[in-house]
Every structure is written in C-alpha cells, then in structure tokens.
Amino acid sequence: MTNLKSNDHKPSVSVPAIDRMCLILDLITDTNYPLTSAEIAEQLQLPRSSTHNLLQSLLSKHLVFKDRDNRFHLGSYLLYWAGKYEKQHSIIDVFHDLIINHPILLQHTVTLSKIDGKEVVFLACHESPAPLGFTFRSGVRVPAPFAATGKAMLSTYDDKTLTSLFGQQMPEAYTSRSVQTHEKLIEELNDVRKTGISLDDGQLREGMYCLGTCIVDTEGNPIAGMAVSFVKDEYEIHREAVSQALLSLAKDISLALGVK
Predict the structure, then answer these.
(1) Which residues contact 183 (CB under 8 A, 6 or more apart)?
(2) Assuming Cys at both sites, which of 23, 119, 214, 216 could form a disulfide with 141, CB separation 3.0 to 4.6 Å?
(3) Alpha helices in 64-195 (DSSP H)
(4) Is the pTM above the cut of 0.70?
(5) Residue 4 carries which DSSP code?
C-alpha cells in the first residue's frame, strides 16, 4: 500500500526567530500573570535586546498587547486563528455527518482538504469499503496543481493570482502526468470553472484518478475541497454519478455552514 507522507518532499526547517516567538507566546499562555519584557527574557534565558525586538514584532501583529505597567498579555489576533481552527474542525464534522446521505460516495474513498498557499492539506477521509491501495492521512500536504481538491480550489482564484503563484515555476512533478506548465494549469482550471468538477488523472499518483469539487464561502473563496479517488476502471464507470453526488454534497455542506 502506498502512503502519502507529509515529509515526502518537504525537509524539516527550523527558524530561530519563529521558535523564540512561539516560546514567548507559550510562556505568556502558561503564566498566571502578565510578564514584563525583562521577566520573559530571564525566564527563557534569551538576550534582552532580541526579546524586546520579538515582542515589538508580536505587538505589531496584535499577537500580544502591553498594558499600562508594560506587562504583556495574549493579543486579540489569536482569536482570529482560533476561529479559523474551529471553523476548520466544524467542516470536518459536517463532512462526516452529511456524507452518509450520499450512498454513492460511501462506496468510495472521499477526502476533504484545505488549500494553504501552493499546497493542499488533507483534513479528513472517508475510507472506501474496498481497499484502494493508497492511504490518506490528515496533515499530509501535496502540490495543489496536481490534486483534484487543489485544482477545484485553485479554480476560484483569478488568473492574476494564479500567475503570481505558478507563473515563474510549477511544483516538481510527482508523475509523468503532473501538469508542468502554467498555461496548461490555466486550461485545466477553465474546465473546472465550467463544470464545478476537477480531475486528477494520475498526476498525484500513477494509476489513481480523482474527481474533485470545492466548497466556497459567501464571497466565493474556497473553504475546502472534496475528492473521490478511484482506480482507472472505476473512474470510467462511476464518473458521472460520482460527479453529481460530489456537487450535491458540497451544496449540502455549504447550507449546513450557513453559506447562501
């Protein structure tokens, strides 16, 4: 069985400044009273000057705020992140709750993903009763132009945004079928815009075909993508019925999330 691994094409990278910012936020979170810059530097054994600079950066992003006594508290922008996290997990629950109303989809492997820059991140998966030969795990990241969910979500972007993302360089190919030019990607996305259905015809994994669609918010921005995975023979047989079921499930999820 082939696994899609989160670190297949992504080396581990540590950025010291970000690591220290996380340590500062953790310390403020774990301490029952607000701390001064000097106290933070002392407890984390960091230079006072760099601690001051990091706190100024966190202040500018509203990740912390400073009271009249020059003591630091968690900032309001963290609520935005928390809200996005809650929304992300809400859609996972809705996905699992509503897919049972679509018996055609229950026969197949159905994935739920979000887009993150040039990649998609798997959030959840309904596994087919019959082994597919591929394993999807939450947190796995793959290039958006190769994945059916990625193509579906990218189709909501305008061409200028797509050019800024992929005009200079496309991701390294996963298979011989992976789309490798910006022009070809735009051509594929134009087809998705017409039908609402995207296709990964072995671009992510040899022998695996995926049909995808997108769930959007009230402004047309992608909330998540869904895709059904097949071997090629299954794809030829079930393509039309699965496409309609995917579109119907996406509509059901949108309504459940309050998207009109």
Answers:
(1) none
(2) 119
(3) 77-99, 103-106, 148-154, 159-166, 182-195
(4) no
(5) -
